[in-house]
Specification:
It is built from 24 helices and no strands. The chain has 568 residues and is mainly α. It has two domains: 332 residues, no CATH class; 224 residues, Phosphate transport system protein phou homolog 2, domain 2 (Methane Monooxygenase Hydroxylase, Chain G, domain 1, Up-down Bundle). Helix 4 packs parallel to helix 13, helix 4 packs antiparallel against helix 14 and helix 5 crosses helix 14.
């Protein structure tokens, strides 16, 4: 008995590992396409539903899709309204797994083909082509999934070997509608434990065909699985921002509402599914008792459970798709935006604070968005440097100098947190192109951190100037302000290029080079002018601080052009 339980757990682990591997291979093979698909979502809720359905049908995991969506909402890549539509589609897309299992996993022993499939997958994974390696990973995952399913079928106890287990489960069926609620709870708990509704559906199918329970109790388990699967998105959102938490709650609202209407109309709904299967020329699954099923009865039960899973999600979507704005308002009312000042908000990571999304390929888009945010924060630091230079009083200067010190610390922290985020992305799960993008993001973060250092150095130059009671004259201040304006323009070009790269569009390197050339030219002109004036000027120290300031601003131009060059 102990060996049988251990075999079942091992088979379950193989099934889950195979599913994850299959999903990972498909995600890597279609990473760029998925990115473009998600970025093309508009506020059209029906297009969002279709997108969620397609993505989940491809990667065979609604949990992966919903966690991805929560991550994208956290990153500001999707609005809450868009996310709700995608989540609805994901719930329909996940029913494809049940159909694949019922059509292939029980009708024929596909595990016989698993070893040859693994050989094919291994050959593909050894090839140089990145795409073929990803396809090989998918093939191996597909084979492992069905080997795990075959072991699960053989290790789940039947009536003859373990009648005591069967009588215990059957005892749950003596409470009328209370029994339905018990099996809903069982489905929820199993999915919470396994973190995969597909694995729970597979187990439910096996138990149903082995006669552990009648069709209506298996149907109740499937309803419970729809509630249990929402925990994954909620866990992902727990460390995310307010919008991410709202998206995860919207997923829960959708599934809980669906289960409520299905329970209210439970027997008519189960009867309706039974009639659909009977219309296909198979026995009505609702009229098949708890018995070991084979042949037409087994097919009817499996198709019935898959049909119920699909129809349940389609009906729920058809009802709620018209109420997406109301769902958004409801979750926004439950999870309120925390009150914080704009000054506090600017220092918070906006796009990656929730950690990488489940899809490594898609995590990069969040990181790119975060460096755009980093660039904007850095540009705000330049504004404080300009105000520090133009300060009229000591107190005014101290205010802005303290801000420059603070922004330098913020730059260090953001660079560190972006590096930590990138480090969490498994290098085994990314393509060569994505690996190159990660190196680019590391370099950009380093350049942006250097810009923060420059801001603090500008503050220190003014401190030294003030200690020697020196002041810039009107002409010098005018030249410095013009230099700041050139650097600020270069910042605008850099941020625009980072935003283009985040959207997968080519950057404008010529504009960046022109902006940097203007900074260099102005630095050269001002330096030559000042060197000429210094020959007959008694105030040597003021000229030193003036030239130091001009040189620091030119150095900032170098850091800025490095960012655009890294993107190319």
């Amino acid at each position: 008995m102990l060996l049988q339980i251990l075999t079942l757990l091992g088979a379950l682990g193989m099934f889950l590992f195979g599913m994850n591997m299959m999903s990972s291979g498909l995600q890597k093979a279609a990473g760029d396409k998925l990115r473009r698909l998600l970025s093309s979502i508009t506020s059209n809720r029906f297009r969002g539903v279709l997108t969620g359905l397609i993505i989940t049908s491809i990667i065979q995991s609604s949990s992966a899709t919903t966690v991805m969506v929560v991550g994208f909402v956290n990153a500001g890549l999707l609005t809450l309204l868009q996310a709700i539509g995608v989540i609805m589609g994901a719930n329909i897309g996940t029913t494809m797994t049940a159909w694949i299992i019922s059509l292939l996993g029980f009708k024929a022993d596909i595990s016989i083909l698993a070893v040859p499939l693994m050989a094919l997958g291994f050959i593909l994974s050894m090839m140089k082509s990145e795409k073929r390696k990803n396809v090989g990973e998918f093939v191996i995952g597909f084979a492992l999934l069905f080997i795990g399913l075959a072991f699960m079928k053989s290790s789940v106890p039947d009536q003859q070997s373990s009648p005591e287990i069967l009588s215990f489960i059957q005892g749950w069926g003596n409470y009328g509608f209370g029994s339905v609620l018990l099996f809903v709870l069982l489905g929820t708990v199993l999915t919470l434990i396994l973190q995969s509704s597909s694995a729970t559906v597979a187990l439910t199918m096996i138990m149903l065909t082995l006669g552990w329970m009648p069709f209506e109790h298996a149907a109740a388990m499937v309803l419970g699985e729809n509630i249990g699967t929402t925990i994954t998105a909620n866990l992902a959102a727990a460390v995310g921002n307010t919008s991410a938490k709202r998206a995860a709650l919207a997923h829960t609202v959708f599934n809980v509402f669906g289960v409520i209407w299905a329970l209210i109309l439970f027997r008519p709904f189960v009867g309706f599914i039974g009639n659909i299967i009977a219309a296909m020329g198979l026995p009505n699954p609702a009229k098949i008792g708890a018995e070991v099923a084979s042949g037409a009865n087994q097919t009817a039960l499996l198709y019935g459970l898959s049909m119920l899973h699909t129809v349940f999600n389609v009906i729920t979507t058809l009802i709620l798709v018209w109420f997406c704005p109301q769902i958004a308002k409801l979750v926004s009312a439950i999870i309120k935006m925390p009150k914080s000042t704009e000054e506090q908000e600017v220092f918070r990571l906006k796009y990656i604070e929730g950690g990488p999304v489940s899809t490594a390929e898609l995590s990069i888009k969040q990181a790119l968005k975060e460096v755009v945010n980093f660039g904007r924060i850095s540009q705000k630091g330049l504004d404080y440097a300009l105000k520090a230079v133009n300060s009229k009083t000591g107190d005014e200067f101290d205010t802005y100098r303290n801000k420059l010190v603070k922004y330098e610390e913020i730059s260090d922290r953001i660079e560190r947190e972006i590096a930590t985020y990138l480090h969490k992305i498994s290098t085994a799960d990314i393509s060569t192109d994505t690996s190159e993008q990660i190196r680019t993001i590391y370099r950009i973060s380093s350049e942006l951190e250097s810009l923060g250092d420059s801001g603090e150095r500008i503050g220190n130059i003014i401190v030294r100037r003030n200690l020697h009671n020196k002041r810039f004259n009107e002409e010098e201040l005018k030249n410095i302000n013009n230099m700041f304006e050139k650097v600020d323009n270069a910042y605008d070009v850099m941020i625009a290029n980072m935003a283009l790269a985040a959207e997968g569009k080519p950057v404008d390197l010529i504009a960046a080079q022109n902006a940097e050339a203007q900074i260099n030219q102005m630095r050269n002109n001002l330096r030559d002018e000042e060197m000429y004036k210094m020959e007959g000027k008694g105030d040597f120290l003021t000229s030193v601080y003036y030239l130091d300031l001009i040189s620091e601003l030119e150095r900032m131009g170098d850091y800025i052009i490095n960012v655009s060059q890294a993107l190319v």
